[in-house]
Amino acid sequence: MLPEGWSGLSTSSENAQSNVVRRGFGLKAEIRESLVTDYHSALVEKIKARGNTLQVGRLTFRLAEEFGFCYGVDFALNLAYETRRKFPDRRIFLTNEIIHNPRVNLRLREMGIEFIDCSSPDPNKFSHITSDDIVLIPAFGAPVHEYKQLQDKGCLVVDTTCGSVVAVWKRVERYAREGFTAIIHGKYAHEETRATSSQASKYEGGKYLIVLNHEEAACACRYIVEGGDRQAFLEKFEQACSPGFDPDNDLQHVGLANQTTMLSGESLEIAEMFREAVEKRYGAEEVPNRFRHFDTICSATQDRQDAVNKLVREDVDIMIVIGGYNSSNTTHLCEISSMFKPTYHIDDADCIISATRIRHKPVDRAVEVFTDQWLGSGDVTLGFTAGASTPDRVVGEVIDRVAQYVIPNDR
């Protein structure tokens, strides 16, 4: 008998029963208390109830209007917790981190979920998986070939891929089906972008090119307009294009997509760069035949970026951005904030060492640094935001830690 929640999606022309679950096991009520205990914050709820503002001694704490867990993260964690509850004695694996937050991933390890490093090129990374095992696909999704390997093993695959990510996949698939190269604004090594770019492989001849920023987009756009050194182009994008990519042929028809957590404004600007390049090369009348674009930044990412943009323009002296250092959406919140106010990106409460010392990762640095006298003296208004993978509990612990260090000094 198939478990409750089995998706029943076909994997062959014979409509074979799939070994994939995407809707959970009907255990939301049973896991609710565990999720609340692990991730809820009474302090954050208290601050929200007071108009997102709290006064503590000389400090004023202000929360962004939107921050923290999004629907996709809630969905992924619900599926993970339901899976552990449904199968307490089965081996459960997770391909990479479920989301980019150290606290969350540590908790899953404590629950006995084993992590598989899928950043490794090892073709035998799934050799230890058997048909009796369960494998969780993270919120970022998984590349097409890895997904198929797991299905072929006959193990139960619990797919927590975010719906916003799936929406981008459908665009990339459509581009490939129609003979367009998918130009993906994203980070080529990021789990989500690896999974997204692989969707082009579902169709024979499907191609993709990943551009990180304006500079890389400009390079590709120049090639569209002027041509150039084919070998130099391929060397520059060696790890960011599909096998057999030929810029002379594969940039003639392009469709834009993006990693869902990128800066929305930058994605729109890059799309316009490619539209203009196509027009310059082929003429305005050819743009509809050679260019496609759909804004695929997820609404939660947009809401959080809009909220931090609003907060940093208000009466805030310092910004604290909370979230994993490898979290793309958190990093972009930090980038926005840093343009306006002194900003400290931290991943947990223990980064607040004292009222005079903080450990954090600047936008332009690959590692953490220490900053002294970060909080200053006198009345200070602190703004807080958190990435979509950051639990409210961590936000509450950071606020509580800052308050505890400062209040004794005020007495």
Task: Give a quick rundown of the structure.
The protein contains 15 helices and 16 strands.
Description:
The chain is α/β, with parallel strands linked by helices and 411 residues long. It is built from 15 helices and 16 strands. Strand 6, helix 5 (144-153) and strand 7 form a beta-alpha-beta unit. It is globular and about 65 Å long.
Tags for this entry?
alpha/beta; globular; Cobalt-precorrin-4 Transmethylase, domain 1; 41% helix; Rossmann fold; 411 residues; 3 domains; 5-stranded parallel beta sheet; 5-stranded mixed beta sheet; disordered N terminus
Topology:
Elements: E1 20-21, H1 28-39, H2 42-49, E2 53-56, E3 59-63, H3 71-86, E4 92-95, H4 102-110, E5 113-116, E6 134-137, H5 144-153, E7 156-159, H6 163-177, E8 181-185, H7 191-198, E9 208-211, H8 214-226, H9 230-236, H10 247-250, E10 254-258, H11 264-282, H12 287-290, E11 291-293, H13 299-311, E12 318-322, H14 328-338, E13 343-346, E14 357-360, E15 369-372, E16 380-386, H15 392-410
Parallel strand pairs: 1-7, 3-16, 4-5, 4-6, 6-7, 8-9, 8-10, 10-11, 12-13, 12-16
Antiparallel strand pairs: 2-3, 14-15
Helix pairs in contact: 1-3, 6-7, 8-11, 13-14
